[in-house]
Structure formats: structure tokens, C-alpha cells
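Appendix C reproduces, verbatim, an entry submitted by the partner laboratory led by Prof. M.T., so that reviewers can inspect both the input and the predicted structure.
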Amino acid sequence: MKKTIHSITIELIKGDIASQSDMDAVVNAANANLQTGGGVAGALHEKAGPKLEEACRSLAPIKPGEAVITEGFNLPNDYVIHVLGPVYGINKPEDLLLRKSYDNALNVADEHKIRRIAFPALSTGAFQYPLKAAADVALKAITDKLCSLSEVKHIRFVLYDQKSLDIHEEALRRITQ
């Protein structure tokens, strides 16, 4: 699914976040210490190689909602924007921290003149944010931010499975009616 709003394309696909060769940057659903792990962080670190973890050392730790940037190394992307989303039920208020995660990732992208950026569904894996609620927060944050972006022209959500894609498509339809 694709929608263009304020000359910026929002795209939702099912796929592998570590294989988005047409994107300038990918977003890592990072942990506070910016180390490799499971899920998105594991996939990106594995494909990027050990230099990614080395580059992250001096940037860690980060707080929920914070975003930092590194090179992409062996990834097909120039950059990785590392974001720490909230752990559901622990980091409060979850909705505001999740929104801040998307806002800050887009701020970093705009500052670095990144035109095409791919996001995973932040906080919905190990951090247990309910998928439907997370999709609503994410897509509302993104659509609210569009008017203030000067460099970003294409925002892609790369979703792990069909259920996640369906939920995000429904949220985007509802938010952009």
C-alpha cells in the first residue's frame, strides 16, 4: 500500500528490513546499549557486520525515544538510525515515548538529508507493544510530521508478516481518511 501526502510517499510492505536496497537509511529497533540482539537489531547487525557494533559503542546508552545515526557498513543502505522504543508496561507514557521515537528518527533523517527511510514496527517485538496500538501511534506520528520534513520524501514501513501489514494498512486508511 502506498499513499502520497504533502509530496511524501508513505509505503507499507511485508519484507526484510535488512534488505531494503532502494532506501538511503533503515531504522534499527535498538536496545539501550545499541548492541546486536534478536529481531530487527539482530538482522541489521548480522548483515552490517562487526563495524556496526563498533560504531555504536560511543553512542550508547540511549534512552527511550532517542535516536542516533551510524553508517550502514555492509548493509545496502548508507545509514542506520538506531531508535530505542518504549518497553510496553515499563517505560511510561508508552504512547508518547513511541511517538517521540518516530519523531526523533525523522528529525535525524532530515538533518542528514536522507530522502528515503525504512522503519520496522518499533517496540512490537521483544518490547511487547500491542501491534494495533503501536500502528496507530506510529502512523499518526508519521502523518503529523510530514509538513515539517524538508528532505525526507519516502517513508517505508517494512513489516514482518501479513498480520502486521494488514493492521498497519488499516491504521493508515483510518488516519488518512
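Strands lie at 2-5, 8-14, 25-29, 67-71, 79-83, 116-119, 154-159. Additional entries are available on request from the coordinating office.
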